[in-house]
Amino acid sequence: MQQEHGQYGPIYSVMHGVLSPGDRLNEMNTVFVDRLGDYIRGIESGTSIKLNEWVKHRITLAVTDTTYGPYNPFREIEVESAFWAFERAVPSLVLLPQWFSTRGIRNRKVVADAFQRYFLNGHHEYASALVKDLYTIECPYGFSPSDRSFLEVGNSFASLSNTYAAVFWLTFHVFSSPTALRRIRKEVSGITTTSMNKTRDNQTFRHTLDITKVNSHCPFLVSTFKETLRLHSADISLRQVCKDTVLDNTYYLKKGAMIVIPSTSIHTDSRIWGPDVLSFIHDRFLPTEVSATQRKKVSPAALRSFGGGASLCPGRHLATNQIMIWISMLVMRFDIEPTSGSWDQPATDKSNMPSSIMSATHDVEVRFTPRRFYNDGVWDLRTSKSEATLSLTAEDLADDPMVE
Q: For heme, which residues are the binding ones (predicted)?
């Protein structure tokens, strides 16, 4: 429960500074595009892939390469495997005696030991500004190499677990609806420019994705993303009671108490969202369209996937940009179809409470077919200091020039 003026306040200030819109965030986005291009360029036509497994592996590498640089510990397959085994064991580590989850403890140590070697060898000097700045600000507090390494395991948890699950569900909801896919492709093509470089021997296409225009030019994609978060997130918001309060003439909240607000109770409340609250409606968040049920305008604060207020996720800009980059490149470069012939939506796994985005209970096998024109050439990203931010929270929307 540290505040910005508390003992560890400078750590939080550094974290928020690096992850806020600006040059350092844009540098991480650019690296992510390069890594993502490397990872998907080799997909051959007709390749059958287990979508959830593929997304998890590729997101793990793309995100951690972006964060930790060329000496990324997650490039070792045993470190990646140990991390995800630890992630599945977190509920038992929290709720049960340690002897009941020795495997989870062992896998956590595998990842922590890899980070300890990473820092002791000075490999963080080649990493992103986030890693370098956090390392610099944390050293004066006297954290041991072991302490610092275990802290980094927690940072990795925050950057990977929810991002990969959000990418899986967004990919599923976009490609499982032909109508939505066509509409999103039209939007993304409007923020993608293509040029051709000719040489004596060949010609190369260069596709540039302008991520700064997602907010203004891709409202249907943004709405689909928000709806994905609404139906698949299960995070909590925390509030501390500042003074004795009686809420709604019913509930007595005592000063100093902590209030835990589960987002699911808000995201599935028909009084807020209407009678179709449990249905996935791609255009639910479009400001200019209303469904057949004539939904009323919903407050931006009702979408709690990134928390809010003092507990607002500092990495929301980085995660959102990475997810938007991922889905934009997929819809432009590939056709994806289920090998079974139909998109059967998996159930959600509600057992892993530390994750804000619930993962799927089973995988979906799909077939990738590259789209000839957009799969050729090189992909670049265009960003700017402030416009490259997709506003999803009430706090961000308050400062968004796109919102009246």
A: 313
